[in-house]
Structure formats: C-alpha cells, structure tokens
C-alpha cells in the first residue's frame, strides 16, 4: 500500500477511534453510537471543465454530510490531491464534533476537489469552482449545507461559489441566499475577522492554556507547520504576544533559526514567492524529517492530517501541541505524547475559531447586520473562553485528556437532542 493511501485511511480510522474512546467512557447509548458512526449523505460528482488550451479535463468533487441533528451541515471545501471519500468522511465527522462542542446550531460536513491547484491558472480555477458548484446543485444551501474555506481555498473561491449558486435562483431570491457560503470577501457579505479567526482562536487557546498553567508566553519558542491562513495568523498573534517562531514548515520546505524568524517578514516574502517560504535568507533550510524535533516549547501543526506519527513523535521537544490543523496527530503518537506528559489542545477546540466566526458571518447575512472587527473578535474570544473552560472542567470530572473531554462534551450535546426528541430514550 502506498504512503498516500495509508495517510488517507489513517484520518478516518483516527476520528473513529477518538469517537469510540469517548463514547466508551461516557457510556453512550448504543443506538446513538450507531447513528453517529455513519455519515448521512455522501455526494461524489464528476464534472468536465474546459482548460485554457481548449481541452476538457474531468474532475472529481466530494461533499460528505455527516450529521445535521443540531442544525444545517457546515464545513470547508479543500482543493488538494489527497481529497477523497475517506478524507471527506473523516473531516466531516470532525466538523460535527467541532460545531457541537462550540455550541453552534450546526452539524458537520466537508468536501472538496481532488486536484493540485498549482497546476491550474486563475481562470481555470474559477471555471472548476463554478462547475463544481453547479454539480453540487441543491446539495448545498444557506439553510441546508454551508461550505467555507479550507486548504487551498479562499475568499475568492467562496465568492465564485456564491455567485454561481445565486445565478441558479430567481432574482428576487438572490440576496436571501447570501449565507450559502461563509469566508467570503468582506465586500461580498464576508465578515470582518474571518481571515484571522482560526489562527486567532489557536493563539487564544494557547493563551488560555498558558494562563491555566501559569506559563508566560513571552520569550517562549514555537514551531509551526503550515504557513497558510491558519499557520500564519496563529504565528502572527504568538509573535505579538512576545513568543519566538524558531521553525516553520510548508509544502515546499522547512526553515529554522534559534534567534527567531520574523512572522511578518516571512509572510511578505512568501506572498511574492507563490505562497512558499523557500528562498527566505534570514533562516536556515533544514531537512523535512528534522522539523518536529526542533527545540521549542510549543508546536502548532497547521497543515494536513496525520503529521505527528510514530515516525517522528519520539523527537518532539515541545511541551504543548496546539492543533491548528484537523487531525494532525495520529492516535498512536498521541498515546506516547500523553505518556510523556506533553499536552494537546485538540483540533475540535483549538481551531474552532474559524467555524465560530463563520457562524457570525452567517448570522450577519441572515439578519442584514454588519459587525465591526472589534465586535467579532470580542464575541469570538468569549465563546472560545467558554469552550476552553468547559473542556478543562470535563477533563477533571472524567479524569481524561483534553481531546477525550472535548469529544465527550460534543457527543453529549448530540445525545441529548436525540433523547429529547424521544427517538432513543
Ligand atoms: N481555514 C480555516 O479557517 C480552517 C482551517 N483548518 C485546518 O487548518 C489546516 C490548514 O488550513 P489553511 O491554513 O486554511 O490552509 P492553507 O491552504 O491556507 O495553508 C496550508 C499550508 O500548509 C502547507 N502544507 C501543505 N502540505 C504540507 C505538508 N505536507 N507539509 C507541510 N506543510 C504543508 C501549505 O504549504 C500551506 O502553507 C487544515 O488542516 C485545515 O483543515 C481548521 C479550521 C478552520
Ligand atoms: O468555517 C467553516 O464553516 C468551517 C471551517 C472548517 O472547515 C474547519 O473548521 O475545519
């Protein structure tokens, strides 16, 4: 079996093991366990797109809707070669736990297209996105399933989805569909703060953890994997707090500097370098395999799933792993980290700032409101503080790690709704 295949299977296996572990501890009703173990709908679409050279290419797109018992399906769209049905299933399940933990009126979904966006021009990406939106048809909708950005998708792509979706509606209904996607550009119904919300949330969780453990973040060393939306903003706020980025890795390479790397300077470099950190002269290029073993206090994986595994866990020096990415730590590696008393702020808590801010955007669109950046960030901070404290309290109550605690809270909310409806007393 190829490494690529193993990685994809790993994500689904990981999320199921995380779920079953929490379900065992909380003694989840077996009927509800059955329901939550499967995905409600799995949409796979094949669609043709004309390329710049006049040839037609066929693309495969996915949208997996895991559960909507708490509200409309919600979750991002990823454009990446590793997107397939198992990846979409795993990521959709994580969305259900994440929205439930955050107390949002949403379920969970995820999807995307299996492609490498670097291989396509901007106008090809626009046509691919518009065709994908047509192919999804009524499988998405502002009160049914609301996509958002994820790896290699961005506000521009959300604007194309919105525009295409609206074009299928009668003119009188178009503005009522503004909330079919979130993470839109601000001029097209997007919310202030959605750009930084996930990374800001990662930073806030680290800050709450530091306050709880009487740790001062000033001068603390951190490494970040992924220097995209989440990795950049998390690093930006860490640097603002006085912490030092000593290592960074993206899809193109890995950099280290014991004295610290300027987050804003590196970002400016990557913007003029097709998003790549390579070629930055104020840090040393290191081997990809040595990245997680860099000497640091905090590690912020913010790229893909299954990055911290049995292969590299032994080298980790950080005392805290703050999961910006979805599913970056596999179950076996996590066991070793916990045995070594390395704490993990789990993805469904740590990166939940993004979907919380998406909810704010959806509310603003629905209610015809426009909130200021300060308002958004303040509301986000309050919500995340509440989630963090609930996770801490439940961890103490059940004597479990933070991930298991976050899962217990998320699953309990779902269990309650099924029981209250009388479906499974
Ligand atoms: N964008 C959002 O609001 C949210 C994103 N997430 C998760 O955060 C993670 C990152 O997402 P974004 O920052 O939005 O994506 P992005 O596309 O903006 O950035 C991804 C970054 O990861 C790097 N990368 C890709 N493959 C890599 C590899 N094999 N090794 C090292 N680096 C690699 C890329 O070069 C890029 O710097 C994903 O797991 C995503 O699901 C979670 C919650 C919300
Ligand atoms: O903003 C959203 O709706 C979802 C973002 C996302 O895909 C995630 O939290 O993993």
UniProtKB/TrEMBL annotation:
Q: Which residues cross the membrane?
A: none
Q: Where is the Glutamate/phenylalanine/leucine/valine/L-tryptophan dehydrogenase C-terminal domain?
A: 191-422
One Pfam family, please name it: ELFV_dehydrog_N
Q: Which Gene3D superfamilies match?
A: Leucine Dehydrogenase, chain A, domain 1, NAD(P)-binding Rossmann-like Domain
PROSITE patterns assigned to the protein according to its UniProt record, in alphabetical order:
GLFV_DEHYDROGENASE
| Entry keyword set | Oxidoreductase
- SMART domains of this UniProt entry? ELFV_dehydrog
Q: Which InterPro entries match?
A: Aminoacid_DH-like_N_sf, Glu/Leu/Phe/Val/Trp_DH, Glu/Leu/Phe/Val/Trp_DH_C, Glu/Leu/Phe/Val/Trp_DH_dimer, Glu/Leu/Phe/Val_DH_AS, Glu_DH, NAD(P)-bd_dom_sf, NAD_bind_Glu_DH
Q: Which superkingdom? A: Bacteria
Q: Which family does it belong to?
A: Belongs to the Glu/Leu/Phe/Val dehydrogenases family.
> What's the name of the protein?
Glutamate dehydrogenase
What is the species of this protein? Flagellimonas aurea
What is this organism's lineage? Answer: Bacteria, Pseudomonadati, Bacteroidota, Flavobacteriia, Flavobacteriales
């Amino acid at each position: 079996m190829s490494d690529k295949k193993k990685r994809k299977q790993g994500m689904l296996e990981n999320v199921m093991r995380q779920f079953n572990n929490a379900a065992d501890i909380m003694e989840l009703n077996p009927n509800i366990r059955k329901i939550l173990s499967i995905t409600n709908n799995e949409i796979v679409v094949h669609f043709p797109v004309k390329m710049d050279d006049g040839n037609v290419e066929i693309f495969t797109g996915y949208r997996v809707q895991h559960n909507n018992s708490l509200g409309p399906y919600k979750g991002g769209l990823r454009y990446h070669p590793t997107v397939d049905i198992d990846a979409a299933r795993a990521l959709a399940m994580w969305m259900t736990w994440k929205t439930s933990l955050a107390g949002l009126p949403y379920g969970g979904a995820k999807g995307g297209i299996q492609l490498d966006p670097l291989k396509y021009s901007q106008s090809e990406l626009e046509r691919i996105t518009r065709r994908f939106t047509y192919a999804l048809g009524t499988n998405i909708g502002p009160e049914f399933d609301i996509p958002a950005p994820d790896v290699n998708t961005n506000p521009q792509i959300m604007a194309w989805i919105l525009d295409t979706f609206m074009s299928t509606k009668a003119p009188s209904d178009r503005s009522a569909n503004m909330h079919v996607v979130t993470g839109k550009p601000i001029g097209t119904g997007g919310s202030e703060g959605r750009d930084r919300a996930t990374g800001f949330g990662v930073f806030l969780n680290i800050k709450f953890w530091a306050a709880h453990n009487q740790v001062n973040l000033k001068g603390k060393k951190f490494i970040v994997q992924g220097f995209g939306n989440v990795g950049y903003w998390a690093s930006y706020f860490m640097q603002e707090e006085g912490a030092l980025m000593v290592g960074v890795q993206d899809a193109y390479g890995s950099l280290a500097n014991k004295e610290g790397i300027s987050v804003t300077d590196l970002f400016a470099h990557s913007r003029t370098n097709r998003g790549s950190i390579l070629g930055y002269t104020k840090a040393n290029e290191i081997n990809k395999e040595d990245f997680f073993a860099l000497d640091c206090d905090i590690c912020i994986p913010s790229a893909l799933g299954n990055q911290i595994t049995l292969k590299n866990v032994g080298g980790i020096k950080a005392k805290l792993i703050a999961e910006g990415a979805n599913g970056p730590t596999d179950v076996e590696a996590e066991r070793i980290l916990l045995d070594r008393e390395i704490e993990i702020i789990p993805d469904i808590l740590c990166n939940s700032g993004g979907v919380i801010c998406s909810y704010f955007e959806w509310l603003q669109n629905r209610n015809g409101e426009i909130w200021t950046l300060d308002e958004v960030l303040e509301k986000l901070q309050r919500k995340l503080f509440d989630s963090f404290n609930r996770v801490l309290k439940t961890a103490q109550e059940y004597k479990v790690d933070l991930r298991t605690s976050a899962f217990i809270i998320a699953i309990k909310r779902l269990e309650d709704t099924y029981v209250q409806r009388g479906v499974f007393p």
